[in-house]
Each structure stands twice: as C-alpha cells, then as structure tokens.
What we know:
The longest helix is centred in the last third of the chain and has 23 residues, at 179-201. Helix 2 (51-66) packs across helix 3 (118-135). It contains five helices and six strands. The chain is 37% helix and 18% strand. Strands 4-5-1-6 form a four-stranded antiparallel β-sheet, with helices on both faces. The protein has a two-stranded antiparallel ribbon with strand order 2-3. It has helices at residues 5-8, 51-66, 118-135, 155-167, 179-201, and strands spanning 24-31, 40-43, 46-49, 70-77, 81-88, 148-152.
Amino acid sequence: MGFNPDMHNxxxxxxxxxxxxxxxxxYVTICTxxxxxxxxxxxxxxxxxxxxxxxxCDEWTKTEQIRxxxxxxxxxxxxxxxxxxxxxxxxxxxxxxxxxxNTPLHGKNQFKSPSNNLGSIIRSFKFAVKRWCNKNGxxxxxxxxxxxxxIIRNEIELYIKRRYIINNPIKWEFDKNNLGxxxxxxxxxxxxxxxxxxxxxL
Length: 202
C-alpha cells in the first residue's frame, strides 16, 4: 500500500510515556504546509520577514508573556519553518539542563495540567497565528500537521541546538527544508545516476 499522508501521519511522534509538562529544555521545529515560504525570504544570510512572518514572531513572544511556566531560549523564523528552544519551569524552580541528563524518559505525572505541557503551548501558538491569518486576508496559510520536538538532555546538546538556530539563516542555501536545495540534489542525483548508467552501457 502506498504512502497516504492523511492516514500515516496520524500516529503520534511524541514519546508515549513522557510527561511533556515537566521541567526541561525542548527543541521544537514547526513547518508550513508543503514547506511553502509564507514567512519571508533569506537575503544575504538574513531573514526578511513577510507580514505572516512578523505575526509568527509576535505570537511566539506572547507565549512567554501569557504562560508563567514558559521561558523562551533561542528561536528563529525561517522562510517555511520555525525553530525554538522552549524552557518549561514549573513551581518557580529554575531549570538546569544538566539536571535532566539522567532523568528517566518514561514517567507520567497525573497531577500536571495538560494546558501547561509542550503540546498545548505549540497548539496555542499555531492556532493564534492561523486565527490572525484568517481574519486578515491570509486564509490560505496553513501549518504542517504536528511538529517535531526533541528533549534536550545535556549542556552539550543545548549548545549545539543554540548554534544551529543562530546560524540557520546563513546556512539556508543548504537547509533540508529549502525546496530549492532539495530540487538541486534531486537533479544532481539523477544526473549522477544517468552518467553511471551511460558508462556501464559503453
């Protein structure tokens, strides 16, 4: 049976037993539907935001303002996706990423409110952006369903993710989410395969 995105993408990509409301550092990537460049363009290594891109920035900044347990680390808006490091700190206890290095990945806390977990944070952010678009003539804008996340486990990984986010605009030409780069790689692979087949036929 062929791949059906409407059916196959329904499976959750979250860790089934992990409590995403607990204190920690989380690396998040959210993409636009079909990787369409709704958020702007990269020019000379710098991101030039579209109006929708500006709203993404505004709504993400508000995330920290409306949720007492959320702090924003590095983040960046790219032409067709968004990277961020989210810090969840409950009960006024400051998170230290090193303290989570040996924390078990499995374990639910039934007393935590679902409204304060990572999924709720991302859903609210995506909904706010889409709602603004619907009200302001950008009804065609769509997010890609779901999002990618990774639990940051130590200081080294935190450093790597921060550097990746900071350097993302200047490396856009080679970004895996840049469809122009993907198209180039496809042509290169096709040409390489053709040359190999032509050589074998000689």
